[in-house]
Every structure is written in C-alpha cells, then in structure tokens.
Predict the 3D structure of the following.
Amino acid sequence: MNCSHLITYYNEQMNKCGETASGALTRLDYVNLQLHNLIKNNHFIRLIYPKHSYPYTELSIS
C-alpha cells in the first residue's frame, strides 16, 4: 500500500498550521508592542497629571 499521498497531505496540513500560527504570533507581537506603548504613554501622562488631579481610580495589576 502506497501512502505517499497521505504523507503529502499531512505535510501540507502541517504547513498550513505553521502559517496560521506564524500569522497569529505576528499579530500578537503587534498587540504586545501597542500595549507596551500604551503603558509607557500612561506612565508619562501620570507624571504630567498626578493622581490627585483627576477622580479616576487606578486598577491594581499584580
């Protein structure tokens, strides 16, 4: 029994999974970078506008 077509199909499916995972990781890296920039900007804004000058409460992240 020749299973070469099944092996080829398996390899194609694994390549598709790899491409999908790579795309997802690229998007995740972009989101992570944007979140990092947002946190950095938030720290900068808090230096300009101290906590006592606005009524919002800060969420604790631990």
Summary: The first helix runs from residue 4 to 48. Residues 4 and 10 are 10 Å apart (CA to CA).
